[in-house]
Amino acid sequence: MLQAHKYAVHFDILPEITYLDQALSVLIADLLPLFRGFPEDVWISQRRVDEGLDFCRVIFWAFSESPEAIKTFGIWFQAIFREADVSETLERLVTCALEEAAEIEVVLTDWTRLHATEAEIAEAIQTGKENSVDIVK
C-alpha cells in the first residue's frame, strides 16, 4: 500500500517579495533526493510554491510503498535542514529566484510535515498514480 505524507519548507523574505520565479523555487523539492542520507524507496511528487508578501513555502508530497521508509524520511527531513550548508544553499536558491534580490534577506524558518486529511492523502495518491511522470525518484 502506498504511503503519502505532505511536507513544506518555509522561507521568510524580508522586507518583501518583489517577483518570485516559482519554477526555480520549486526545485528545492527536486533537490532533496540529492542530499546525503535521503532514504531509499521514497520519492517526491506534486511540488508547488505558495507565496505571500513576505514568504514563500515549497510544498510537496513524499511517497513510499514502505511504512518504514516513509517514517525514515520524516526523521531525515527534520534533521537535514539543521545543517547550515543545506539551509544556506536553499536560501541562496530562493534569493536567486527573486527579481530584486540585492536588498532582500531570505531565511529558512520552518520545515514541517503538514497535516493532511484522509481524503487529501487519497487524492494525492490517485494524482500520483495518474501523473507518474511527475515523480522524482
Class based on secondary structure composition and strand pairing: alpha+beta
List the uncertain runs: 133-137
The largest sheet is: 4 strands, antiparallel
Query: Percent of residues in beta strands?
Result: 25-35%
Shape, per Cα inertia axes: globular
For the residues shown, what is the average pLDDT? 92
Our Rg estimate from Cα atoms comes to: 15 Å
What share of the residues lie within helices? 25-40%
For the largest sheet, list the strands in their spatial order. 2-3-1-4
List the helices and strands and how they pair.
Blueprint (H helix, E strand, L loop, with lengths): L2 E12 L7 H4 L1 H5 L11 E9 L3 E10 L2 H14 L3 H14 L7 E10 L3 H13 L7
Characterize the structure shown:
By secondary structure, this protein is of the alpha+beta class. It has five helices and four strands. The chain has a four-stranded antiparallel β-sheet with strand order 2-3-1-4. A hairpin with a 3-residue loop joins strand 2 and strand 3.
